[in-house]
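Q: Given only this backbone (227 positions), what sequence would you predict?
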């Protein structure tokens, strides 16, 4: 949540409505630079509830998609730290895709990456590229960040563009970073490491379609058994 990264019990006080200061800033950047902008995610206040929400703007500054994280991270990591997102966040309940200049984006956030069913649903709605802002912990990130990203790309014949927060924050917690882009074959084509950084990657839709023809996974899915 780029507008706030502190103690869990302070999240509600930091939450914003949409439109609000953070999304106004992202909208203005999209309009100024005539780009599509996916603004990570933010703590969104909606009535009495707070959601972890991503918003996408088109080059005119119009909002074209809004997704709230479906799977909330309630877990204890190997370093002994406990996370209880359900104590201060409300889960979303909508699968969201949007068109970005003729390419269909599928939206997910962080812990969502562990649930293949969500990504199957995104592909069923036309997704070609998954966008995943995340704040993976150091212990889970070291062993599981890249394998999860590559698996979701391979299983669905999709690009995966994952932005990982990096660094130490509240109560000794640290984020793993390692933002990366994975192609539909499962190859990491660009990656950051420790520290802050910027990635630029080219997405080849023709190559994506070639991979899907070679490995027609979606055609072979037994929806009659597994949905």
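A: Predicted residues:
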């Amino acid at each position: 949540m780029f507008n706030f990264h502190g103690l869990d019990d302070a999240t509600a006080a930091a939450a914003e409505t949409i439109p609000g200061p953070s999304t106004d800033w992202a909208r203005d950047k999209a309009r100024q630079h005539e780009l599509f902008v996916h603004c990570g995610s933010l703590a969104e206040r909606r009535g009495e509830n707070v959601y972890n929400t991503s918003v996408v703007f088109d080059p005119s500054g119009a909002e074209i998609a809004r997704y709230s994280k479906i799977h909330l991270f309630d877990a204890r990591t190997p370093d002994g730290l406990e996370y209880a997102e359900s104590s201060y966040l409300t889960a979303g309940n909508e699968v969201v895709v949007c068109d970005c200049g003729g390419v269909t984006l599928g939206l997910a956030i962080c812990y969502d990456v562990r649930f293949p069913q969500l990504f199957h649903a995104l592909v069923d709605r036309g997704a070609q590229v998954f966008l995943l802002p995340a704040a993976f912990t150091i212990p889970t990130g070291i062993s599981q960040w890249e394998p999860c990203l590559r698996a979701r790309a391979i299983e669905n014949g999709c690009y995966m563009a994952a932005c990982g927060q990096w660094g130490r924050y509240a109560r000794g917690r640290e984020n793993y970073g390692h933002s990366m882009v994975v192609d539909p074959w499962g190859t990491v084509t660009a990656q950051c490491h420790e520290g802050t950084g910027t990635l630029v990657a080219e997405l080849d839709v023709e190559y994506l379609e070639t991979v899907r023809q070679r490995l027609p996974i979606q055609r072979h899915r037994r929806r009659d058994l597994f949905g």
